[in-house]
Amino acid sequence: MPAEGPRQRGQSCPCPGVQTKLPVLRWLPRYSLAWLQLDLIAGLTVGLTVVPQALAYAEVAGLPLQYGLYSSFMGCFVYCFLGTAKDVTLGPTAIMSLLVSSYAFHEPVYAILLAFLSGCIQLAMGLLHLGFLLDFISCPVIKGFTSAASITISFNQVKNILGLQGIPRQFFLQVYETLRRIGDTRAGDAVLGLACLAALAGLRAMKSHLPQTARTEPLAARVSYLIVWTSATARNALVVLFAGLVAYSFQVMGSQPFMLTGSIPQGLPAFRLPCFSMTAPNGTIPFRSMVEDMGVGLAVVPLMGLLETVAIAKAFASQNDYRIDPNQELLAMGFANILGSFVSSYPITGSFGRTAVNAQSGVCTPAGGLVTGALVLLSLAYLTSLFYYIPKAALAAVIISAVVPMFDAGIFRMLWRVKRLDLVPLCVTFLLCFWEVQYGIVAGVLVSGVLLLYSIARPPIKVLEGDVLLVQPQSSLHFPAIECLRDTVCNRALAASPPRFVILDCSHISSIDYTVVVGLAELLQELRKRGLSLAFCSLQDPVLQVLLSADLEGFQHFPSREEAERCRGAEPGGGGAAPLASTSESSLLPAGLIQ
Amino acid sequence: MPAEGPRQRGQSCPCPGVQTKLPVLRWLPRYSLAWLQLDLIAGLTVGLTVVPQALAYAEVAGLPLQYGLYSSFMGCFVYCFLGTAKDVTLGPTAIMSLLVSSYAFHEPVYAILLAFLSGCIQLAMGLLHLGFLLDFISCPVIKGFTSAASITISFNQVKNILGLQGIPRQFFLQVYETLRRIGDTRAGDAVLGLACLAALAGLRAMKSHLPQTARTEPLAARVSYLIVWTSATARNALVVLFAGLVAYSFQVMGSQPFMLTGSIPQGLPAFRLPCFSMTAPNGTIPFRSMVEDMGVGLAVVPLMGLLETVAIAKAFASQNDYRIDPNQELLAMGFANILGSFVSSYPITGSFGRTAVNAQSGVCTPAGGLVTGALVLLSLAYLTSLFYYIPKAALAAVIISAVVPMFDAGIFRMLWRVKRLDLVPLCVTFLLCFWEVQYGIVAGVLVSGVLLLYSIARPPIKVLEGDVLLVQPQSSLHFPAIECLRDTVCNRALAASPPRFVILDCSHISSIDYTVVVGLAELLQELRKRGLSLAFCSLQDPVLQVLLSADLEGFQHFPSREEAERCRGAEPGGGGAAPLASTSESSLLPAGLIQ
After folding, report:
1. Which of A83-87, A90-94, B309-313, B573-577 is predicted with the least confidence, judged by mean pLDDT?
2. CB contact under 8 A, B514 and A453
3. Which stretches of sequence are listed as region Disordered (chains A, B) (predicted)?
4. Residue A380 has what DSSP assignment?
5. In whole angstroms, what separates CA A460 from the centre of its chain?
6. Do B592 and A408 count as a contact with CB atoms less than 8 A apart?
7. Is the Cα torsion angle B419, B422, B424, B429 positive or negative in sign?
8. Backbone CA torsion sign across B45, B390, B146, B413
């Protein structure tokens, strides 16, 4: 997969379009037994995680429980064929469920229609190649998001470990309630949960300290190595199964110290178009008024879904360093939601927790999704009776051990050392994510955008004082920067008496826009008024073309700084290499008012 | 004034703070009789324009007519002391009146409170030095705004020239209605209006073709020159007075072929705090609920006022090339609105039309505002009876002849020649301004911002193929650009077989952020995985510091391109100048998940 990474991006793709639009073709031919084994384990583990999560999230969304499961398989299937990130798993998530609850009015019909429309919008974005927007999610923002999410998600599971019920979803209320009711902890759940956590931690440690085996070693060693390795990699599945057995045996003995997943309504959803109208007690609600009811939700849901997916995909892509194709991700999301709506799914997106579980279990290709999806379908059809016995504490342990490593305390120290300014978007995102993840990400992106624009509006300008004043902008000039440059030049040039000959070294300027041209024209005029002359030097070709096409009055340019200094005697506004156009002045002034 | 220009900006101001905060101190000491003469003429002309405009705009704002005049003098006084642009005149405007009408519910109390609160908000922005935001209004946006405004404002006056009444304000409706009812044209108004237009055009032409006089010429010549010059400069006032006399004589003769300004209620407004509550038929409305009623208006009104003023100030500043201090403009606006609210003014801002008249009349300092303000006060106190006779057609002619020159058809050709991409913000602004000026400006700013961000996300990258691959970004690297750079390097490096030694020439990179550092770290890893090595060369010092502080694994750098090429044999990831930090990998990966 990594090898393919760099070839997956739009503008620079040497491989046929089919492979780009259908990433499955890229890994399927190279699919091996080793991969299959890992994908099976991962898919199974994620499957065992998604089923109870789906039920929980359906509750959050205010829908009947089975809708959680209906939303959990189509995403996996679609993503397997269209997705470009091996770890990402689409499905119901906490944030999306919250949004759905506020836009679907606890009505499955609304939720399904919302999924359909969101899918269409995301698909449109993908087809319009708006994926480059992804580049504007900077690393500190992703860091802040992942770190905060790991804390919220894992704390969200603490209540299951302690066997507490009726804890609110909002993070701060959750913390308060959990601490307040710490006394009500159920011994059974706590013991099991902590045991599972310990087991998972131990198995992971074991895996990371596993020595490499050489072919030279005796068979026994290699076999035992394989066993340890497998159990360590499949640890999530193992722990869940083990906990399930324990719970079952207690059940058989007639006592039950654990909170169990409980019974799940059985049967597959029908495959049909979503309803575009709804029969309410007081007559049918037409499509138009349903859309009006959802209102802003039709913008928020698809965008948030996108933001979450791409942020997660980006994070995991660079963890396991492969590259994702943003536009392809949009398409996958879109199709997943549209097809999902055909099987009564509510809007889905990339799940942070399950994607982490997936990666932790060492998934190799999106094929893992097939296993997950199949497991969900099976569970809907037959296995609900088995899932009944899964203790919630065990699943909580799986999720916690998956997301805790996402928290990276080092990043704060790192940014302090490398680039302090980047601490601002990091902290903004990190802190706001505890309030609402979507606000955190959006605010982070905005803050880093503002910092970016500011650095463009105030580029570093090197000034060498002397009998000749040499001014050298250290980067390209964009329109917000020209005022600042004009001020620098004017103030420095007029500070000295007699005013000096000014040389503008443009070696670092690769492109300029019209506003900059106008600013330079005004600068030339302003200096000439004061009997000063300004010479340009080391102009890159495109910049020179633009300046010549604008025929600035009194524009002189020289190939190098030295030659410019040599001609410092030249009378102000004197010809130099530039044509003197008497019209240029009036045609260049911003307001163009001179008559 | 121009000489002072460059010294007026915040960050680079060598002159004492008092002069910056009180610009009047900058020009008052140098005030001369010649200036006084011109300021008098300009102030008078603007005064004669503002009075009837104020009445018209008060009607637009849905307030009793006298409130238009109450809003017309305080702005002039305040700006005279605090303003940094000699041409700008603050007062009621069409756009602001429209906004007021939608947020003040035809209630003076609301309008005045709105003015007070808007002033406070603008003052706060000024004190927080948010003036640099002004730099993000690019030249094409100003061009589009001024050109569109000149068309709408002048067409808005056509109805007065034709003597049509009851024409809607919205531009397109206005055009439709005016054309539909062209038959109802009143001969008297049309004749007078066109005559005034012709006279104004003639006088302007005369002025622009006026030859310079030398001391050597005979007195007669110099005197006649002075007469011609004065009448040409004071043409607006002359035309209005002349038209007034004509209308008066007709009145005396008992027939009136013209639409007159009509009678204006007399008397000065009281100077008192605005009311913070309102007595309605059904009990008093408290401050809080008044604020709630105005709601979003409290954001829209101050911001639009600001946007308009700064756009206009910027346009005229660069027409008559002097510089404005954005933050000072905010302060002036804020004080003008706050003090205005003490004399029952509704929110005011820079008036495009009157500012043009002011500039056309050759105003030299903001002192012109004192005359205008005084004239308004006088008119309120005594002169309303005289203004009665001013024909609307004559004032329409003055405004039209002032704003028509603002339309600059050349800009389209100019941008096509110099920088085609800038035609996009220009056209967006220009076209949308016909719908709603505020939408036009906002959309234009957004579009140019998007283009700016895109050019940063996709910087020009020069690639020299050879047995060594040399990659040179042409401008600084900001976080949105790193993905693009990574792809370019990877694709080019892997395209060749055997893969090549890569040199990244950083001579044009003046600063990098953490995201870029991470991207480079991943790039190093990616290339090393494929047995390639990447060397950095010509690093600027700050950039080198950042890269060293991040201790990238396998980071090698060389002072020059040649030295880098010399060492191309170096084994991939080999030490070079960089410390090999085994921790760096995990601490640098965005998701930081590697355990």
Report:
1. B573-577
2. no
3. 566-595
4. I
5. 31
6. yes
7. negative
8. negative
Task: Express each pLDDT in B144-203 by its tens digit.
Answer: 887 887 888 788 788 888 988 888 877 888 899 999 998 889 999 999 999 999 998 998
Kindly determine whether residue B589 and residue A318, on different chains, have CB atoms separated by under 8 Å.
Answer: yes
pLDDT of residue B582: 32
B481 near B453, Cβ under 8 Å? no
CB contact under 8 A, A491 and B139: no
What's the confidence (pLDDT) of residue B111?
92
Length of chain B: 595
**A147-189 pLDDT, tens per residue?**
887 888 788 788 888 988 888 877 888 899 999 998 889 999 9
Mean pLDDT of A465-487: 87
Choosing among A206, A419, A494, A516, which should be mutated to test the B contact, i.e. which has the most B CBs within 10 A?
Answer: A419
Res B1: pLDDT? 37
User: What is the Cα–Cα distance from A108 to A116, expressed in whole angstroms?
Assistant: 12
Burial of B557 (0-12, 13-18, 19+ CB in 10 A): buried
At residue A363, φ and ψ (nearest 5 deg) are -60, 145
**Helix/strand/coil (H/E/C) assignment for every residue in A461-522:** EEEECCCEEEEEECCCCCHHHHHHHHHHHHHHHHHCCCCCEEEEECCCCCCCCHHHHHHHHH
Confidence of residue B214 (pLDDT cuts 50, 70, 90): low
* Cβ burial A140-173 (10 Å sphere, 16+ → b, else e): bbbbbbbbbbbbbbbbbbbbbbbbbeebeeebee
Q: pLDDT of A46-55, one tens digit each? A: 887 787 678 7
B residues 5-24 near A, CB within 8 Å? 5-7, 9, 11-12, 14
- Indicate if the alpha-carbon torsion angle B493, B496, B502, B508 is positive or negative: negative
What is the spatial distance between Cα B505 and Cα B549, in angstroms, rounded to a whole number?
Answer: 20
Query: In Å, what is the CA distance from B422 to each residue of A519, B308, B430?
Result: 15, 21, 12
Q: Which helix (H) or strand (E) holds B470?
A: strand B468-473
Question: If DSSP codes are grouped into helix, strand and coil, which group holds residue B463?
Answer: strand
- Angle at alpha carbon of residue A217, lines to A215 and A223, rounded to 5°: 90
Residue B233 pLDDT level (bands cut at 50, 70, 90): low
Say if the Cβ atoms of A6 and B491 lie within 8 Å: yes
Q: For chain B, what percent of residues have pLDDT higher than 90?
A: 17
10 Å CB burial of residue A267 (0-12, 13-18, 19+) is exposed
SS (H, E, C) A124-187: HHHHCCHHHHHHHCCHHHHHHHHHHHHHHHHHHHHHHHHCCCCCCCCHHHHHHHHHHCHHHCCH
d(CA B224, CA B192): 28
The model's pLDDT over A508-541, given as tens digits with 9 standing for 90+, comes to 888 889 999 988 988 888 788 777 888 999 888 8
Phi, psi at residue B305, to the nearest 5°?
A: -55, -45
Residue A285: phi, psi to the nearest 5?
-95, 120
The residue ranges of DSSP E strands in A28-95, in sequence order, are 90-91
For residue A440, which amino acid is it?
G
Per-residue DSSP letter, B92: -
Percent above pLDDT 70 for chain B: 89
* Residues linked to residue B501 through DSSP beta bridges, in sequence order: B468
A-contacting residues of B 303-342, CB under 8 Å? 314-316, 318-319, 321, 323
pLDDT single digits (tens) A246-257: 999 999 998 888
Radius of gyration of chain A (CA): 31
- How many Å apart are CA B474 and CA A149, to the nearest integer? 38
ipTM metric = 0.76
**8 A C-beta contact, residue B362 and residue B36:** no
DSSP symbols for A215-238: TTS-HHHHHHHHHHHHHHHTHHHH
